[in-house]
Request: fold
Amino acid sequence: MTLKVVNVSRPMADTSMFEAAGIEFSQTLVDSTTSKADYIDILRDVDGAMIGTLPLTDREVLEACPNLKIVSRSGVGVDSIDLAAATELGILACNTPGINTSEVADHAMALLLSLTRLVRETDGAVKAGKWSDDPASIAAFRSNLRRIAGSTVGIIGLGNIGRAFASRIRGFGPERIISYDPYVPQTTADLYGVQLVSLDELLTTADYITIHTPSTAETRHLINSDTLSRMKKNAILINCARGPLVDPAALQIALQSGQIEAAGLDVTETEPIDAEDPLLGIDNLIVTPHIAGASPTSGVEGGRKQAENVLLVLTGRPPHGLGNPEVIKTIAVLRATDSGRWEGIPDFSTALAL
Reply:
């Protein structure tokens, strides 16, 4: 039996790992304009797929691919995959945690510094000639600049990226670094100088809030009209995690009404954000195009680990990351009854520390 793998996410130059394993490899890149029918046709007969954020790998796609055993995404997110359907069908949804931790933490810091030090505004004023021609307008910026030292910084989600952000922000001298993460013990938070608190305490006491939590049904619109209303009026909100964590309509109202001071987003609920979206007309908001995790280094490492996930699984070894660990039980049942898509594939489940 010859196994087949397709890459639809980004060009892959070195395919020797698949050739050495006797796996047939092909590339057909897709994007947001690819129809679901075309996407299904590309994946229909393959055993493994390297996928991107779009098109969505939903239940209809997964159910149409009887041989599919693994879909692998670069980065920590697996929100473009229907995890419930994948688990039910016995398909691994894999990721590559850790490949862009530094980049995302750096980007969150960059957004925060841009907003506290008015980098965009002062750069624009200088380039418009106001430093020389209208010095009074430049002087007006001074009263709106802010320092991080002595403040309270709140981190929602203290996973790898949240911890990396905590390590960075400590150097700026905040009085407190607090975090809301019900899945992390205080003993872990202590290693990063972070105090775990309730979500309500974080919202009501933090001067700066940054979000680094996964996008799930539980966290959808975690930042909404209610949670925004509990923030301080001088609060600055940063989101470099996932767009659906923030209700865009509620954020628009909060920014325009002065309910919070400013925000920086690298992600939006709908991507790409429409050119006419009212958020883009708000002066106290910075929006970057979901590039926080990007760099040549993370791109190379992410592509390599994304490919390795597929190869590892198809040759009976555990992947780098697994977004639906419950699928291991499903596969065990399939192997004991009707192997189906997993027939002939070595069992790697005993090597996984789940």
The two ends are 30 Å apart (CA to CA). The first strand starts at residue 4 and ends at 7. The chain has a mean pLDDT of 95. The chain has two domains: 4-99+296-351, 101-287.
